[in-house]
Amino acid sequence: MSNERDLKEIIRKIQLMGGSSLIVSLPKNWVKNIGLKPGDYVCMVIEEDKSLRIFPTSSKRQKPVGTVVVAEKMCTKEYGNYMVLREVISRYLAGYELITIVFNNHDPENRRLLKEIISKKMIGVEVIDEVQDRITFQVLVSIEGLSANKIIQRMCYVTSGMLRDIITALENYDKKLLRDVIDRDDNVDKFYLYILRQLNIVTRSYVSINKVGLSSVEEIPQYIMVAKSIERIADHAQKIASNLLKLVDDIKSKEEVFNKIKEIIISVQGTFKDSVKAFIERKRELAHHLLNARAKKFAENEAKWVNKVIVLNDIRMFALLRLILDSLQRITDYSMDIAEATIDLTVK
């Protein structure tokens, strides 16, 4: 094959040798690039999906170790630290263990904000070295510490807890609890970036897929989609808490309306939890049930809500309640996406 180097998939015929041994030749260009020679050993790993991964024992592909982000051209008045933060996140997702940010202009407040945001957004990222012109972060958490299913479950626990505590805050007119819910969105973001890092490292063959609790690379797109859906649901739970915070003082005077909102939140929370349960436990029938019944139930709840709110003369309250209902609709939609991912994942 003269075009081997241009192919990602190479077909080889299995040969019979010595009457009982089956052999297959290695691609010439791959052998040359790796630097193998007769007598060298290669390691073969049988993956859960029955595929075979081959690599030289002396040079197993390693995760990237260190990278440098130069902040000089990124920290602008218009964009602040966002460009630097995006660069750091991209290095984190790529699997780097050490990330150094270099500053040409000494600005203690700028550095403090960056450290605070990075600490909030990424699991296990700690400062190990800091001088006037640079900060070095190290990723201390192993990607094998939690399986992909455990990460999805923890994202679900935190997000479901946000919705549950919104209900409690409505019952007790609790502004502090609503503020606490708003802050918890960062915890979901941490798990989301962590699972993206984990699955990205698996995709790049730095570790075997079974190390993160999956059996096939075909599962990865569904896990990414589900993690993204939960992250977006948490964002909407945060928005609901933010909008309710502006309405807490009105709850007592419009108790019937807010009781209806509470009822809808309880229903939506149940739909979300069931969708994640269906995905984790591979319950195809439950996923179908959710898709058939729950979306219709939300539409019925919305109609009842509109009938109660239509009599309000307060435009501000109506607008905020409308935003809350829109967020609840989006949570339902993302839950349906998770149910659909379950069906896609369980096709035989």
What does this protein structure show overall?
The protein is α+β, with helices and mostly antiparallel strands and 348 residues long. It folds into 3 domains: 4-56, Pemi-like Protein 1, Chain: D; 66-139, Translation Initiation Factor IF3; 148-345, Phosphate transport system protein phou homolog 2, domain 2 (Methane Monooxygenase Hydroxylase, Chain G, domain 1). It is 57% helix and 11% strand. It has 9 helices and 8 strands. It has helices at residues 28-34, 82-94, 108-121, 148-172, 175-203, 220-245, 255-281, 284-309, 315-345; strands at 15-17, 21-23, 42-46, 52-56, 66-70, 98-102, 125-131, 134-139. The strands form 3 sheets. It has a 4-stranded mixed beta sheet with strand order 5-6-8-7, covered by helices on one side. β5, α2 (82-94) and β6 form a beta-alpha-beta unit. The protein is flat and about 85 Å long. The model is unreliable at 1-5 (pLDDT under 50).
